[in-house]
Amino acid sequence: MEVQQVLHMNGGVGKTSYANNSLLQRAVISTVKPIVDASIEELCCTLFPECLKIADLGCSSGPNTLLVVSDIIDNIRNTFQKLNRPPPSLQAFLNDLPRNDFNTVFRSLPGFYKKLDEEPEKKLGPCFIAGMPGSFYGRLFPDNSLHFVHSSYALMWISEVPKGLVTKEGEALNNGNIYIAKTSPPAVFKQYLEQFKRDFTVFLRSRAEELVPGGSMVLTTMGSIKSDDPLCIWEFVGTKLNDMVLEGLIEEEKLDTFNMPYYAPTTKEIEEVIEAEGSFILQNLEVFKNDWDSYVKQADSGLDKKTRAAIFATDIRAVGEPILASQFGEAPMDDLFRRFEADVLDHMERENCQFINLVISLTKKR
Amino acid sequence: MEVQQVLHMNGGVGKTSYANNSLLQRAVISTVKPIVDASIEELCCTLFPECLKIADLGCSSGPNTLLVVSDIIDNIRNTFQKLNRPPPSLQAFLNDLPRNDFNTVFRSLPGFYKKLDEEPEKKLGPCFIAGMPGSFYGRLFPDNSLHFVHSSYALMWISEVPKGLVTKEGEALNNGNIYIAKTSPPAVFKQYLEQFKRDFTVFLRSRAEELVPGGSMVLTTMGSIKSDDPLCIWEFVGTKLNDMVLEGLIEEEKLDTFNMPYYAPTTKEIEEVIEAEGSFILQNLEVFKNDWDSYVKQADSGLDKKTRAAIFATDIRAVGEPILASQFGEAPMDDLFRRFEADVLDHMERENCQFINLVISLTKKR
């Protein structure tokens, strides 16, 4: 499996599209906003760029894509008003893998620019929004060409499924699971951790070359308390796939040889890679936790359990479907997410099911 | 009609897609290559950029999109080899209107990069290809941020259909035609010329702000000998639409109120706008002419007349269909281009049917 070919959110604007089912990611962006604000403000006050150049890595395709840019524009305007200086122009690069649905993002840009023009109090210098397709596990921009890098809910997608999870002899190490699970042997955990370390190191090194000295990053990713803790959503999806294997609906071998290109690191693992890579100062590393469905409750506290489960299932489907369907086919997806929806909130009552989010603020050493 | 909403080549990679029917544009790019080469070489020898930043305006979506970038990469490599200097990195922005099919372009990038990597003799510094959606009749990039701008077969699309072609009272000036034709009154020509002057002035002013001093542009567009000469392909399409009106297949009013957002200027008109705008030195302005179907003959000299007509009709359809269908609907398109195909080569024998191409080389004043 070539991760670049299959890792993308559901495209378009239909019922199962990511664009219509990204409430979770929106809630995370809101929570992290004060940290992004502080970082941008610091940047504006120290670098005074004529044109602020930023990149959003793993921008996906939906309302959140331009939300980040919009928040940053608000912030720059406020900061420069406080400084009593003319605001800079802005060049924003929206990055995602080449199979991301950039067309939908681009088609929403005329409306976005129009809204900016209609709110003169939001007026910056000119604002230029470009798309930059490619993997952030490698170089994306010229040397010293960016001031700020943002990434939300993207870095947990690693560049490839660790090769060692299936031995050269074809033996699958992580039978019956699609990610690190309680029943996974230690070798599985080790393979994932090593892949994460390699990937995150390449990520940091690439960004270090691209950012100007003093430039900064705010990265939000899914994390874990201990690397093998039992709360991951993909472990739960794995149990449903396992049920379908037991009922003969999915071939056992297909499940055994499939693993998600995903890793949720601990704060300690993050800190160690940053330290070892050496280009960045870690300004801040925050952890916040939420029950799986708390963002749904937050958006509408009046929803009953059944409705909450349906929304949550659709949101996870929008994220996971392309990659799961690449292994198991489109056919079992309806059944899989029906099972997910039917059981997920009961499961939450039985086990401690939380998203753990890590927010990492970094500054490139001068 | 909002030109931004309807002006794009046929998307995707299907039978009537622009991607599969852009041989004409390819032939033009090949013809212009020596002029682009000279311009890039001059640039490399005078500016010595660490990262060469270029933009292709009106890149469309098809094999030609990356052909231009590929040619420029070859050229930079050769030039820097001659200079015995390490080659710069390259940041290339592919620009088109937001409704262009960028997804198809972006999905071909991994293969493009892979090919570059496999040809070490083609190796530059790193090469970064981004998409920049937006109208080139306005700002697209920050101040002083580009070294070279290329545009091929895009500037003949003006920003809007001249408003004066239908009077405030609803009277259509260009009855029975969709572009300047022999039977068009002088007011039609005047409206088009004024729109062109406004648009090309905005284009030059925008690029002047974006290019570094000494930066350059090579622009290829369709031109005319006299502004009202009778050779334009859209005049011919107009006669076919007129036939369909006479047969009751298209409403007369629909044809009378429709005009193409297109203008093919003379060299004199081009020179006058450049002179009046004042930011650029005109280095070179070349005219070359080709029979409508000569690019088809060139690609395969063994094709019979019927096959040549079919290829030519499909190529023009790939360009014109979205905008024509926005006025006349999808339904009459098959019929329209069948008529086009049936008559076009006979028409060429009766009249002098040529594409006139203008190649404009400009340098921003220092």
From TrEMBL, chains A, B:
On the tree of life, the source organism's domain of life is Eukaryota
Q: Which UniProt keywords apply?
A: Magnesium, Metal-binding, Methyltransferase, Transferase
Q: Which residues form a coiled coil?
A: none
Give one GO term, molecular function aspect.
methyltransferase activity
Name any Gene Ontology BP term.
Answer: methylation
InterPro entries this protein is in?
MeTrfase_7, MeTrfase_capping, SAM-dependent_MTases_sf
UniProt xrefs under PANTHER family: S-ADENOSYL-L-METHIONINE:CARBOXYL METHYLTRANSFERASE FAMILY PROTEIN (PTHR31009)
Please report the name of this protein according to its UniProt entry: S-adenosyl-L-methionine-dependent methyltransferases superfamily protein
Q: Which organism is it from?
A: Prunus dulcis (Almond)
